[in-house]
Amino acid sequence: MIKEVFKPASIEEAVKLKGSDVYYLSGGTQINWTPAMEERKVLGQSQIEKVIILKDVLSIEIKKEGSALSIGAGVTLQELIDSSDTPDVLKKASRYIASRNIRNMATIGGNIAANRADSNIIPCLIALKADVETADEGIMCVEKYVREEKSGLIKRVILPPLDGVCVVDAVYKSSGSYPSVTTAVMVSRQEVVIVVGCVSKHVVQLKKLGQSVLNGSLKGSDLAAAVEAEVNPVGDLLGSAKYKKYLSGTMVAHSIDLARKGA
Questions:
Q1: Rounded distance between C-alpha atoms, residue 107 and residue 116, angstroms
Q2: Which helix (H) or strand (E) holds 14?
């Protein structure tokens, strides 16, 4: 239960206010997410009682910077969808969240910072080779921020020009459920990026498979089997571990095929 609220006048002030028992709050759709709260109880940690309101200090601007696209961390998922500058594939990833009410609240920075394994946005951003600029460590790739469990305040997301084709996919039991598996792939002449969510503690990039897919030595059913062997999901109400492995393999193989056809 939130008992104390701080409202900084700048990002610098927000960073100074941050402590081990003080949390950033942007759109507010993630901070009291039930599974995260349950995990905190298991670890013997207290509930969140102190928050820093970021609404007035985070950028909500989407703008071109040379050939790149800069997206303020305070931009909501609905604003991403509505912007003519947002790549279509990122719009599609945002639309996987069925509730417009949530899309109007949830921010791109908060989605990355929450670092959920079932995020629809993180796989797409990793496949797009996006960077984040944080207040304390500067610019780093989204994949590193997620993999190393960074907690720095995200100021903006930077999308480089897409030199290839990116495809996202997700499987849901219903429009109101969390996804069973999420995937994103990017295929260009120089590389293949494969990203899978819901199969580990965080969204994971399957770097070992990219080169084999690029040179054509791994495709079709062989690719699906290789992906299944690489992921280690945990079975739950959304599907057994075997089912999630199967989904991961077939979804990646299908998406690679679509990307190569220019989907």
A1: 14
A2: helix 11-17
Report DSSP letters for 112-157, one per residue: HHHT-TT-SHHHHHHHTT-EEEETTTEEEEHHHHHHTT--PPEEEE
Query: Closest Cα to residue 194, out of 257, 240, 113?
Result: 257
| 72/167 Cα distance (integer angstroms) | 23
Average pLDDT over residues 34-39: 49
The pLDDT tens digits of the residues spanning 103-133 come to 999 999 999 999 999 999 999 999 999 999 9
pTM, two decimals, is 0.92
* Structure tokens that stand for 120 in this block: 């629809």
* Amino acid at the residue 198: C
CA distance 145 to 147: 6
Two tokens, residue 184: 């994103």
Alpha carbon 238 to chain centroid distance? 19
